[in-house]
Design a protein that fits this description.
two-stranded antiparallel sheet, 6 helices
Length: about 170
Amino acid sequence: MKEQAARKNRLEQALSTDIGREFSARTILFHQAIASLAGVSATDMKCLDYIQRGVAQTPGDLARETGLTTGAITAAIDRLERAELVLRERSEQDRRKVLLQLKHSPQLQALMPIYESIADQSRTMTKRYSVEQMETIHDYLTRWIEIMRQETRKITARSATVESKSKGAKKST
């Protein structure tokens, strides 16, 4: 029984810190490498991902989903547009509304083999696991995504509070 508890403790430690941190670092470095190839930032590439998956169809959607300011989103979209990865289009129904679309350009097509390779490796890896194990992995990762959303919101709120306090301090001087 003690051996089982010790094993569980080691796995919890590995998943919550050691492996979790390395996975996070490798993910960031992977996305930064792709972003460098595309001539944009890793944040820009994650914005592109939200657009590609249909999570964000407008700059406002993108700001809400990422927690970035509208100014930061405008700059990211500008960079993605210059890199020929995204198009801004006016909505047919409401001309005031700007819609974001992938630009099916040679630049975007050049990135596809990278994503196809990682997707192929992921599919190969998941074949090792039973349905029950994959359900556990799915549950674990889904819960982590929600934890990261919540923690990001907390940081963003704290950052906004600090920013507004510093602006208030500048006005009173």
